[in-house]
Amino acid sequence: MTDPTTEIVEQCRVLYEDLSFTAVKQWKERTGGRAVGFMPVYAPRELIHAAGMLPVGIMGGGENLEIIKGDAYFQSYICHIPRSTIELGVTGRLDCLDGMLFPAICDVIRNLSGMWQMLFKDKLVRYLDFPQEFTAGIGGAFYRHELEGLLQQLSALSKVTVTPERLRQSIALYNENRRVIAKLYDTRAKTPEKVPTYELYLVMRASNVLPVEEHTALVERYLAAAAKRDRKPLDNARVVVTGAFCEQPPIALIRALEASGCYVVDDDWVLGARYLLGDVKLGDDPLTELANAYLGDTVETASRYEPRRKKGAFLIDSVKKYGAEGVVFCAPSFCDPALLERPMLVEALNKAGVPHTSFNYAENTSQYHVFKEQTGTFADSIKLWGAA
Amino acid sequence: MLLQKKMIAGHFDRLANTAKTGEKAVYTFVPGNLNELIWAFDLLPVHPEINALQSAMRKQSGDYVLEAEKAGHSEDVCTYVKSDIGMMRKGNIGPTGQRLPEPSLLLLSYTGCFTFMKWFELLKQEYNCPVVMLHVPYQADGRITPEMRKYVVKQLKEVVIPKLEEISGKKYDEDKLRAMLASSARSEDDLVAVWDAAKQKPSPIDAYFGGVYYIGPIFTAFRGTKECESYYRTLRAEVEQRAKQGLGPVTPDGKVHQEKYRLVVEGPPNWTSFREFWEMFYAEGAVCVSSTYTRVGGLYEQGFRHDPEHPLESLADYCMGCYTNRNLPSRVDLIAKQIEDFQADGFVVNSIKSCNSFSAGQLLMMKEIEKRTGRAGGFIESDLVDPRYFSAANIKNRLESYFQMLEARS
Lengths: 388, 410
Hints:
The complex is a heterodimer.
Chain A lengths: L5 H12 L4 H10 L3 E4 L6 H6 L3 E4 L23 H10 L8 E5 L3 H13 L4 E5 L7 H23 L5 H27 L6 H10 L5 H16 L9 E6 L8 H9 L2 E5 L19 H10 L17 H9 L4 E7 L3 H17 L3 E6 L7 H17 L3
Parallel strand pairs in A: 1-2, 1-3, 3-4, 5-6, 5-7, 7-8
Helix pairs in contact in A: 1-8, 6-11, 7-9, 8-10, 10-14
Chain B lengths: L1 H15 L1 H4 L3 E4 L6 H6 L3 E3 L1 H10 L3 H10 L8 H11 L15 E6 L4 H13 L3 E5 L10 H23 L5 H24 L13 H9 L6 H19 L5 E2 L2 E2 L5 E6 L7 H9 L3 E6 L19 H11 L6 H14 L4 E7 L3 H4 L2 H12 L2 E7 L9 H18 L1
Parallel strand pairs in B: 1-2, 1-3, 3-4, 7-8, 7-9, 9-10
Antiparallel strand pairs in B: 5-6
Helix pairs in contact in B: 4-6, 5-6, 8-13, 9-11, 12-17, 14-16
């Protein structure tokens, strides 16, 4: 009998592997609209959508892109995602994008925005400066102004006037998308045998190139199909994977992790799609509502200052919520945010008695045995002794 | 140089004696620092980058970095951070051999460097002390907008100043701050005159290796103080006198007798082998006539001065104006202008492994600067305070080849 998810996963795999962004080109041809790319972690896609354009998540070139020109732009000690992104840009693969947004996440992505300004002078290039001060009157006011400026630029690019009503409609669609993604994550945590992580990952990656309405429908179809699976749970260790919020791990690494005896029950890849934890309110001033949502109920991640809670509290909450037995720190080499964050999270986990293991990867890593052995041993130690 | 060393030693003495004097220390970062504001509350500024680089110059940072790595810090990340963490774990003995006080406050002025945020988050865990965040927006479009200024001023008024009042137990005294800002502006005038002196041939100063001594007081704990003013008055007089006499820069091995190549340098220096690194330049007659590292604490030659008439707005502009808070096209403009203004024969990029804020994008910047100025760029790699990443032979080789190329072009 054919696995009920096969067709959907295959569709997502094709989208994931297509470094020519055919889906984006087809959307443009179909609608006559424009497309705007954004880098990790989070971008307010609602604004792009409301301006009648397609938001396109750009997460580097992954394991399938041969870097020919990109390495000449970066020193060896800089992570891999900017070099593959430059490779995509200078080889014309991103010509289908009419603009690029660079969210404030680290110095490398910040400076990449300047490189883009120099290399692609005819495109819209915008650095998104998120507030690190989280009161409505200070950080909120600043961020609302940033959003307003961005919306003006997007609107000028698409020649679509964005009314509050139009923006509210976009927000409503993304709220729906976030809800269905939350359901996907909850379902995986409850029944990981039915929702393998590599499939979940591909479904999430599809959100980078599909219109939000189509992605929401795709997730719903996937959930319905996965529910039909008749699989028994394995005696795997339940783990949370953290540190992969920007440069993404190769899909084969995710599979190796699962094959080593781990059920991933939470992760932080493609994090922008679920950065806001609740619905954005559909109030009178949708820009203020988007700003308030950013200030309030979001994930905690390394690029965001957390003045209120102890470091690691969010990770420990996730461990508890999803019934995880351990944490796998899985970060890209030379990723300042993830690697500087790691010792603080390790300390928090140690205090909470949560076992953990760590490794680094690059998006084009091609040897997985070491990772598999490491996470396999970690899973075994959890299962055999209850702690690593 | 002697005066400057004396000032820094005096400050470390003062820090070492806080247990007796009851003075409180505020840790903060160099770029875009709020030195005058900290002093206005009679608090003592401590700059962890300065501790790290001073430790490196005294050959102590290697052990500190290893100590931090043993404690789980990645090999891949900033060595300033690891030197600081290692120093703290080994008893927080500062570069002068005296114990540094624990911070009463971590003033996280988040300017031009993402790592600053992680650094103070790490210190917060170590010291368990309060942190106040001042988020400084990036000049992504090469300018400061009124909204950006408003955001920083609001944070100063509503978050930073109340916290400083709480820690110091003193009320905010704007007149005291104004007086210090006026003093800062006078020192800034003198520093600009020192930089301008390098436009002369031969240059009376080395504006990179010598330059790091010249920026010491104004970028760290002294800006806004009488001592600082006096230092820059003296420095300016000395440099102008040397210029009048047609003298070249002074190096650790004496005077540079022949200025063979005039260079602009992009990027911070290596601190662990600072003297050896400098020698590679002056031994070949290469004089650095301008540099970007000496602008991390402010681009005064573009006209910025701390302004007592608009104290908080001026602090906000200062924070946003530092070199690494400017976008790459602005950095290219600045270097190209320095090359023209200082009649440089070429420029060298010292690419620092630890510092992505500086380093990411430098190769493209180089290309663009070469295209725009027609002057050749040289490229070397090292690190701030990790001695493992200073490969003298490689750097010397590259520099020698570069100088040969300049020679061939002349």
